[in-house]
Specification:
By secondary structure, the chain is an all-alpha fold. It has one domain. It has 3 helices and no strands.
């Protein structure tokens, strides 16, 4: 994972911080086009990735 964030990821980090969320944005070099690839890249279950996408989508309808 990269130590320096790209500008788009940095904007997300700043938004999270503005909501007092102690979440750290991380970028990975691996392909993460699917939930399965993302889960493999960061070492979690695919259900955790899909759950995050679902919550994000429900809040932004």
């Amino acid at each position: 994972m990269a130590d320096t964030l790209k500008s788009s990821a940095q904007r997300v980090q700043e938004i999270l911080k503005s909501y007092n969320l102690a979440t750290k944005v991380a970028e990975v070099a691996a392909t993460t086009r699917t939930s399965q690839e993302a889960a493999e890249a960061i070492g979690c279950d695919v259900e955790q990735i899909a759950k995050t996408h679902l919550h994000h989508r429900q809040r932004h309808k």
